[in-house]
Design goal:
alpha/beta; 4-stranded mixed sheet; 11 helices
Length: 320
């Protein structure tokens, strides 16, 4: 089936820490934004991946557009505007990435549904959304309106990728998340997300609850402990691949890129196809996603692997 796998939302600059003697001494600039990372990840894995959103016309925005084009991301739905770019500074605290965002009024927060061209709706086969794009400006409503229009015409993937420190109105945000969960066919959460979303509840309990609210597949990642996947009343535990972890920045986005690639390679572009996917194929797609995430953790920054790297990685771990 022709078409593109489109991610939508924030596109920004991550400033990752440069450390010396256990202290942060500076920052290095990298392209970032969770949905943008997913688009880059899918493109590197050989998929026809597009990114939709608004990007600043400043020097950072020009860098981001050039980066997208360099890595094979379709930029037809990337709309330039005169505004600043969102900047995110990343540091490690207690083994987890901590973020400081600077992006009030930034270009990627100002998307409207009218900005998206007709081809966006006719050509998108898998639609991925979530993260901080649901927190600021007009972009949250634009993203959900796009999901509503694509519902039933594309496979909808949602990763909330929660940043509680950026939430200003918790009640309104939880209501927005409920809308997103109800729209999504695939939901990917991390164990860190669960701590805020449903404190005190197990991954299995949350997965079962979400399954009654709309999603056909719920996946909860637990870092080195692997993932829990739930579909149609069944659950599977899929172990992680052991690697030497350099950092975990972008690991969740890499997992999403791997999972959506695994589904696309099996022609899963609709909810019906997701529901009918044989168990062995679903587990293979989850294992592939785990390999993509593991390779990303083995190097600095949100630097997802190419398809050949993943194939080599998995081949070396095949049981004789």
């Amino acid at each position: 089936m022709s078409g593109v796998l489109t991610a939508i939302g924030e596109i920004l600059i991550d400033f990752l820490p440069i450390q010396s003697g256990g202290h942060t001494t500076g920052f290095a600039m990298h392209a970032g934004g969770a949905p943008f990372n997913v688009a880059v990840g899918m493109a590197r894995l050989g998929q026809p991946a597009a990114f939709a959103g608004k990007v600043a016309a400043d020097l950072f925005g020009r860098y981001l557009r050039a980066y997208a084009e360099e890595h094979g991301v379709d930029t037809r739905f990337l709309i330039p505007m005169e505004a600043q770019s969102t900047l995110a500074f990343v540091a490690m605290e207690n083994g987890e990435a901590a973020y400081a965002f600077y992006g009030e009024g930034a270009a990627d927060t100002l998307l409207t549904i009218d900005d998206l061209p007709p081809e966006f709706f006719t050509e998108t086969r898998i639609f991925h959304f979530g993260s901080i794009s649901l927190l600021r400006g007009s972009t949250p409503e634009a993203v959900l309106a796009a999901a509503e229009r694509l519902k039933g015409h594309a496979l909808l993937s949602f990763d909330p990728n929660l940043r509680p420190g950026l939430v200003r109105d918790e009640a309104a945000y939880r209501a927005l998340l409920d809308r997103a969960f109800a729209l999504a066919d695939v939901v990917k959460l991390s164990s860190v997300d669960l701590d805020w979303l449903a404190p005190g509840r197990t991954a299995g309990e949350v997965g079962a609850d979400l399954a009654t609210r709309g999603p056909g597949l719920v996946v909860v990642t637990h870092g080195g402990a692997g993932v829990l996947a739930a579909r149609g009343g069944q659950e599977w535990q899929v172990p992680a691949f052991p690697v030497r972890v350099v950092d975990t920045v972008g690991a969740g986005d890499a997992f999403s890129a791997g999972l959506l690639t695994g589904l696309a390679e099996r022609s899963v572009y609709t909810r019906a196809a997701l529901d009918a996917l044989p168990e062995a194929d679903l587990l293979a797609a989850l294992r592939f996603a785990g390999a993509v995430a593991a390779l990303t953790c083995a190097r600095a920054g949100a630097d997802p692997p190419r398809r050949a790297e993943v194939a080599e990685f998995l081949a070396a771990r095949e049981t004789p």
